[in-house]
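Quick question, first post here. What does this chain look like in 3D?
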Amino acid sequence: MAPTATSPSTNVGAVPHRSGAKARLWFTGLSEKLLYYGNIFDVLAQHHPEYVALAWGTLKCLLVVSVSSTSPFSPLPETHPVTKPQAVTNHATTASKLSASISHIADLLPQHAFHLILYPTREMQTAVARLYACILKFFLSALQWYRDSRATHAFKSIFQPWDIRFRGEYEAVAATAQQVGRLADVALKAEVRDIRSEVVRGREDWESVMREMSELRKENQRMQSSILCMHQEIRLDLASQRVTLSRVHLNQMLTLPLWDSFPTSGESLQFCRSIRRRRGERTRLPLPDVRKLEAWSSRGDNAVLLIDTYSSSVAKTFMVDLIDLILHSHLPIIWALRYANYRDRSMSVTDIARTLVLQTMQAGADRLLNNPFPVTVEQLRGAAGLDEWIAILSRLLSSMDHAFIMLDADLLTHATAYERGQVLGMLDLLRSKLSGNVKIVTSTSCVGPSYVRELEDLDACIRVQTGNAEDWRKTRRQRRPVMRYRKW
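> Answer (accepted):
Ran it through. Tokens below.
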């Protein structure tokens, strides 16, 4: 902390005497007490100044200029001097203030050296050099005073007290120290200003970076939107191309020579419908069988529906009615029905599986085009046995959630030449190898009662009974149309 222009406090009582004579201590204490009440004695001396003034002035002069052989190396005075009465001799005052000034200067030197390290500017170097010069000048004067004799101290106490000899040099040191402190404050403010400028520049750079990042983000969003649009266009193009290729592939498979010997699905269904109309038969189901039929259609696994009736024609009529009902419900269904002159052609169970594959491709064309095509032309051409055609049929049906398969009993018995084992083997392959929810419908006349019981024990089928003998007799006794002839 820089010393102020005011002189440091005096503390004569704190300055020990070299000789330690009790008389001098007593005399010093007496001088302090008398000078403490000096203003009062000045007022009292004015009562008869012609008698008292000369004596009181002489005593006061002796008290002020009393010689005290105190040590110049007194303890440090208080940092903040306390106001005391001016009752200390000039010699003691000079010694005390010199000690306090040197102590203050010792405290100043590390502080201003640190200022010089922190702010090594030309102005700071000049101010610190001037401070050191003032300190050296003050130290030289103090050293000269300490080297003087007692007589010289007594003489100088009267003619060169502290205020006359040392006050100016001490105030020069204080002013120079304050100048160094002000330069340090100005340098600190300059540093704060530079830091603030750097902060402002950093903020501007940050705002610029944020603007650039915002622009880059917008540009990235535009690029993402454009890429997304391009990706959607490419997907649409690829989807359309895939659908086109799948359609070409499907048409190519549908035009293979493998299907030339088989009628279309519409032709066989139309043939069965015409027979139903010609016979004029209608089937009815009892209420328990209707509930069985509903439970069978809602099952989530492969199941067989066996039609049990007194006549094969009634079973065929019921199958055609069931096909019409499923088609009206817009559910996927394929069938292997008899067609015109089917007995004149030789068939096998492999041909029936091939017919089911053809109808699956025709009925599920939309689903096959929307998904990767599960079958290739080479697979169709290379398939030979029943197992291979059933595997192809399973891959085609995998694109459907559920499907119905209708198998005409007459067509099965014709294809197997009444060998029931082949029919049962084909039904087992369809029931076990097909994937998904597939419902198979046929008549009990082509499988036999033992197989029906076996499936019922496995809970793999349900059996419904339709028609009765009375319906058959009513149909047989229908009135024939009467031919009427016009008389001429």
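Confidence is low (pLDDT under 50) at residues 4-20, 67-88, 469-488.
Strands lie at 303-308, 333-336, 402-407, 437-443, 461-465.
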